[in-house]
Amino acid sequence: MTRKFFVGGNFKMNGSKESLSKLVKAMNEASLDPNTEVVIAPPSLYLLSLQEQAQNGVQVAAQNAYFKESGAFTGEISPVQLKDAGINWVVLGHSERRSYFAESSETVAKKTEAAIRVGLNVILCVGETLEEREAGKTAAVVESQLVEVIKLLEKDASKWKYVVKPL
Predict the structure, then answer these.
(1) Are 127 and 105 in contact (CB under 8 A)?
(2) How far is Cα 46 from Cα 116, in angstroms, rounded to an integer?
């Protein structure tokens, strides 16, 4: 089976209910290539309303998930909860999560494993900072970010079908 082309948009902490609804309406009415997976990642507050509005093959992703199924983790969303709500995609390891919230590659790997365990598709973010790129460290940085994920997923290569690495 040939993999579809993938287009994803992360809205980060931007947009309002009205502006995001307008964007989804425009995507619903657009002539989208059926061989392209289109996934949008709105702020979590808007996940369910946009999931209900999305048509035309447009899918909705959470911008983050925690690796625990439940518990006293204020502000977190579990992969189990996302799946229960009908959300099938999650963005993990974003550079902002790594830098602003000190999310380690080990934590990203645990989140990735937990998401895949419940059947979520993962948009796994890896990449270097501008300074690292200019210093010629791109390959080393990306390798260091992937090594923990590889350790957890190498036991079952079929799990990689759920992972998309954005450019």
Answers:
(1) no
(2) 23
Q: What is the pLDDT of residues 104-118, one digit of tens each?
A: 999 999 999 999 999
Question: Which has the higher per-residue pLDDT, 151 or 32?
Answer: 32
> Over 34-57, what HEC string results?
CCEEEEEECCHHHHHHHHHHCCCC
What confidence tens digit (pLDDT) does each residue in 40-81 have? 999 999 999 999 999 999 999 999 999 999 999 999 999 999
The token pair that represents 23 in the structure block: 């964007």
167 band by pLDDT with thresholds 50, 70 and 90 = very low
Q: Comparing C-alpha atoms, which of 119, 129, 127, 128 is closest to residue 163? A: 119
Strand partners, 36: 5
Strand partners, 9: 40
The angle subtended at Cα 124 by Cα 57 and Cα 45, nearest 5°, is: 60
Angle between helices 105-117 and 138-153 (to 10 degrees): 40
Do the strands 89-92 and 58-62 form a parallel or antiparallel pair, or are they unpaired? parallel
Contacts made by residues 149-155, CB under 8 angstroms, sequence distance 24+: 149/105, 149/108, 149/109, 149/112, 149/124, 151/109, 152/109, 152/110, 152/112, 152/113, 153/112, 153/113, 153/116
